[in-house]
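tool=predict chain=A
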Amino acid sequence: MAQGSAVLTEPRRTRRGLWSWVLLAVVAGVGAYLVVRDRHNLAIAFSEIGWGAMALSAMFAVLGTVLLLGLWMSVLRGLAVVVPLGSGWRVFFISQLGKYLPGLLWPALAQMEAGRRWGARRSVMLAANLLMVGVLTGTGLVLGLVMLPGSVGLAGIPSWTAWMLAGLLVVICLWPHLLTRVVDRVYSLFHREPPNLSASPRDMAISFAWATATWLLYGMHVWVLVRSVGGTGADAWVAATGGIALGWALGLLAVFAPAGVGVRDAALIAVLSPIVGGTAAFAVALASRGLLALTDVALAAVAAIQSTRGEATSGVTQE
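tool=predict ok
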């Protein structure tokens, strides 16, 4: 019977194996495209910053991006979806390449399809993606509002006003069922049945912590670059961390911009210019953009290679 089952499923395994290799080729193609597209910007950044700082910054970029997987899986656990780490790695990092297309829903569509293997409804997977975006946006705005006014005088916002706005955002993000009700409302606007999910304050707090840790690592990623162009002192670290968090959050809100291109960079340049000057801030923004894009491609390539190896081992049958 085992042999018969293996024969019956062999065509399916062959198709899945073929798709895994196609996926790997797509990831390689996207990586080559991003390198070719940004080659001039990367060359400028390398000449201004240097290889050593770029390599150290890349390490923090990888660590911060890996923590995004922890955030996504924590949101899913809060919605009662248990995802194996290996499968979650493959789905999340491959789907992240979709953010380089206009619109926020391309990664969500890939995750919705993958959710079926974990027994999760498509609506639940979409809700998880929307909640992750909401948590990232909320925490990014909180850090930006708290850190930046005192260090670079962002738009002349008084510190007490920034703290009040940040506190309000924290309450909104942690309030029981509030974000999930927002997700239900989004479904209703598109005449779809709401998933009617709920996430506890504890679940939201854990997700909040994952997102904050991500911003701190991304802040280190930018701070290393800022130091290499002359930024020193606590203000440089505060501006780097608050700038990348705020810029990323604004980029998420700008759904028309693939991966927040232009929006995130403009915010980062505006925040860093008082610290290191406009030319150096521009080089840092270019370097950050290029390193984070290459990080996405590298992690997606690892996930695609894991997928091809998984298909190869899945063909082994027991007698």
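Residues 2-314 form one domain. Confidence is low (pLDDT under 50) at residues 1-17, 311-319.
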